[in-house]
Backbone:
């Protein structure tokens, strides 16, 4: 991601004289994107940490250990459909972090049932992150660096996976530490909420325009576009985009039946499905059993590189 951003600078894509938005706060956009991507880190860490518990669970509970997070994530994703345009992106991320902190409480008890319940409810927070983090990143980032900023979502998921694997390889024989290996997401949830509350206290500009909050939208654009002219131009483009969306609103029927949208939609679904059949998730959950302790760090790094690719 950093290499892509630097290459864009070298090629003149970010040259103030060549870009459509001649001046935007590059550092602010990157820090803002990394702040939002902390939710992706928590998703990656929480999904991979199941392998740390594997040795503590009886065989009849292991399938539930592996499937509890996806089931909860499915419920969380469905839940977002009812609040994506009402509660807001920023506020829903804050609620998701609070919910994640609450779901970590059952992990403190040394019972298999409590851990399963905690992971299932934890999956709801992951479902919230999987919807709102990429959506917020796309709506927040300037169009010149939007592609690079949006890669933060997958990058931070991969970093969370890698950290969980390395931590699990270190504490595999310590039941006490394994039980508390769920606590790092708690720290990042508190940090992200603090940043969203104090450092980045605005919803995405596109969401504010959709809610007809023009004055708040302009306030949200002040740090991203310090120049008044560029800020006004961005505000005008957001208004025009809203009007065009009202003229032609894409429905589920369009995704499946329209020749313009259906082919891209089918390819995207196919890529997501194929990703699940690569076997990476199986390796994440079974890492403790497929390698010797001295080689586990190397395999953890290899999984990190594969997911990064």
Residues:
């Amino acid at each position: 991601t950093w290499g892509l951003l630097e290459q864009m600078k070298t090629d003149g894509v970010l040259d103030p004289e060549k870009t459509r938005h001649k001046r935007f706060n590059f550092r602010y956009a990157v820090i803002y994107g990394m702040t939002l991507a902390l939710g992706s880190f928590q998703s990656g860490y929480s999904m991979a940490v199941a392998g740390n518990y594997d040795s503590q669970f009886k065989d009849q509970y292991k399938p539930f250990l592996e499937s509890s997070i996806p089931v909860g994530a499915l419920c969380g994703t469905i839940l977002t459909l009812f609040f994506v345009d009402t509660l807001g992106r920023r506020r829903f991320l804050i609620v998701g972090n609070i919910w994640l902190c609450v779901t970590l409480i059952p992990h403190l008890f040394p019972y298999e049932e409590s851990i399963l319940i905690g992971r299932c409810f934890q999956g709801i927070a992951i479902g919230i992150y999987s919807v709102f983090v990429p959506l917020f990143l796309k709506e927040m980032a300037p169009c010149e660096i939007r592609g690079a900023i949006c890669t933060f979502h997958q990058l931070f998921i991969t970093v969370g996976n890698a950290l969980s694997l390395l931590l699990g390889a270190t504490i595999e024989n310590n039941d006490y530490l394994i039980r508390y290996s769920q606590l790092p997401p708690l720290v990042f949830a508190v940090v992200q909420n603090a940043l969203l509350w104090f450092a980045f206290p605005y919803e995405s500009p596109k969401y504010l325009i959709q809610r007809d909050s023009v004055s708040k939208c302009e306030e949200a654009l002040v740090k991203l576009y310090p120049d008044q002219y560029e800020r006004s131009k961005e505000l005008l483009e957001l208004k025009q985009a809203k009007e065009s969306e009202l003229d032609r609103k894409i429905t589920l029927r369009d995704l499946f039946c329209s020749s313009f949208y259906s082919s891209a939609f089918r390819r995207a679904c196919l890529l997501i499905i194929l990703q699940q059949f690569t076997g990476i998730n199986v390796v994440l959950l079974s890492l403790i059993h497929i390698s010797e302790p001295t080689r586990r760090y190397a395999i953890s790094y290899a999984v990190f590189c594969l997911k990064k690719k």
Residues 16-22, 291-299 have pLDDT under 50 and may be disordered.
